[in-house]
What does this fold into?
Amino acid sequence: MGHHKDEDFKDCPVYTTSNGCPVMNPQASQRVGENGPLLLQDFHLIDLLAHFDRERIPERVVHAKGAGAYGEFEVTDDITDLTSADMFNKVGKKTKALARFSTVGGEKGSADSARDPRGFSVKFYTEEGNYDWVFNNTPIFFLRDPAKFPVFIHTQKRHPQTNLKDASMFWDYLSNNQESIHQVMHLFSDRGTPYSYRHMNGYSGHTYKFTKPDGTFHYVQIHLKSDQGNKTFTNDQANEMASANPDHHTQDLFEAIANGDFPSWTVYVQVMTPEQAEKFKYSIFDLTKTWSQREYPLRRFGKFTLNRNPENYFAEIEQAAFAPSHLVPGVEPSADPVLQSRLFSYPDTHRHRLGVNYQQIPANRPLHAFNPFQRDGQMAIENYGANPNYQSSFRPITYAKVVPHEAHEKWVGTATNFAFRVNDGDYEQANDLWNVLGRTEGAQKNFVHNVSVHLCAARKEVREKTYGMFDKVNKDLGEKIRTETEKNVPNSGKVESVSARL
Ligand code: HEM
It folds into this structure.
């Protein structure tokens, strides 16, 4: 596999307890006589067991199953007219990066080939701090009000009573919250089961802002297109792979890199001026919509390559902490409410999952962090010595030069609980996607099949409501799904989900 070689171990140090005391025989516990009880003084044994008892940290609440690797970003085309970000300021400039790919709904040991969106996270170690892309392999998402996220996720995971995945709960949510339809169209096409992490694209989904110190800014969306091409499993192939090799994506990525077959992505930016955004057909802060590439063409600016496997999965990948709020000068979040909530949620979950000093873990440590105002806390490794922990008059701290930042958008309004309504516009891009599928032999047929084998296990009223949702995308599509799903209900040999009978 090209990773550890035997000679790496020839200078192995002497095995010790955690406090460094050399141990002669790690397999001999101290006891009274040969058959007597153990001794509490046997620090080696107690040290070993107590540490083992604490090996697990919480898995990510979503995106728990993943794989990652190191790589680099190279600027291929100039975008200094859009952003002052240091890592993009020169063609040819390279920045080191760490990537993690993941499924969303399954637990840490679940199958890589499951039908699910895929996470596409990258951390860039730039001269001006860590800049994270916490993207998915789809350009849109299921919702546009973040208050729906936790409950939406509950419906895609396990039922609280049966602890089973539950088709009724799954489709009940989606058919009651039909702004999800565009993402559902992606998820149930074969794009919902990518062949590998190397063969899929990445998308910011959200609108971000690229900014310049002169106060100008543009709205942007970022796209990473796989240089390996897009390759997907059919539903049957994905199911077969889930049992033949549940870690297929993980293995595929590791082996490709170990064999020197480095995966890469060409990186593009889609750009809108504030004036264009005002006139855009949909809100640019609506995560369920894409921007037409005809009207807002992709501008190439970089190449992203993965070229090194981690040495230690837990240290470097499990402990990696990505957040849309890890930004650098020249990049800002937009007012997209889902993005705004994510700015809070990720560092918050990292403090829970990894601890308050999660930024000090080597995989997360920025090149030049210096913040002596943040002190102490569990696992404070870098605690900034005698540097002042306040704005001292005696030992002044250097601050960034003030960047003239003119107000960008101006927000006015009354504080209100605003509930987005689903409207006809929500089905337009879903219909466009249905037509796009029509251009690939068999893709529409697979879509109908993929929905029907899943939906057939839902209770009747949920199935009916879901047919109604697909009808609104396209009458023909709705009809096909109804016919094939109902055929599968009696014939599939599957029972309706357990909750359907509770
Ligand atoms: C992971 C929350 C929407 C992409 C996570 C995690 C949380 C979370 C709590 C676990 C992070 C960890 O433990 O390290 C949310 C909330 C959302 C939302 C509250 C909406 C309100 C999205 C969207 C995208 C996305 C729209 C993509 C555009 C990801 C990715 C990961 C992730 C890629 C895995 C990060 C990794 O590899 O460690 N999300 N998420 N999420 N989320 Fe979201």
